[in-house]
TrEMBL record:
This is DRTGG domain-containing protein. Pfam families: DRTGG. InterPro entries: DRTGG, Ser_kin/Pase_Hpr-like_N_sf. It comes from Mahella australiensis (strain DSM 15567 / CIP 107919 / 50-1 BON). It comes from the Bacteria. Residues 6-106 form the DRTGG domain. SUPFAM superfamilies: HprK N-terminal domain-like. Signal peptide: none annotated.
Length: 110
């Protein structure tokens, strides 16, 4: 499934990285500790986190994350959006909790 397909199926807002919605999602990782994500996320994962500062984009690049998903309609910093657009890292927003997002991703076969 691509990031764009996921955004459509789960009615998520595309906050940043609209030019990279064709990236393939190969799994999901839910974590808010950036160093842990760098050590344990797998390339192609959709990453669910409440962190919204610009460092999440750097972590997504290092870990080769397909997209960042921000739960609970949390606002994303303007600097983060600009950096994500610059590096073609999609950021999706959802009003759902991390738990609900992970469950839906599982149900979709991610």
């Amino acid at each position: 499934m691509t990031v764009g397909q996921l955004a459509e199926k789960m009615n998520m807002n595309v906050i940043a990285g609209a030019n990279a919605l064709n990236k393939e999602i190969k799994g999901c990782y839910c974590c808010d500790l950036l160093s842990w994500v760098m050590a344990h996320a797998q390339p192609g994962n959709a990453w669910v986190t409440v962190q919204t500062h610009a460092n999440v984009v750097a972590v997504a690049i290092l870990a080769d994350i397909s997209c960042i998903i921000i739960p609970e309609a949390i606002a994303v910093d303007k600097d983060t959006i600009a950096r994500a657009d610059e590096h073609n890292i999609p950021i999706l927003g959802s009003s759902l909790s991390t738990y609900a997002i992970a469950g839906r991703l599982h149900d979709l076969g991610v």
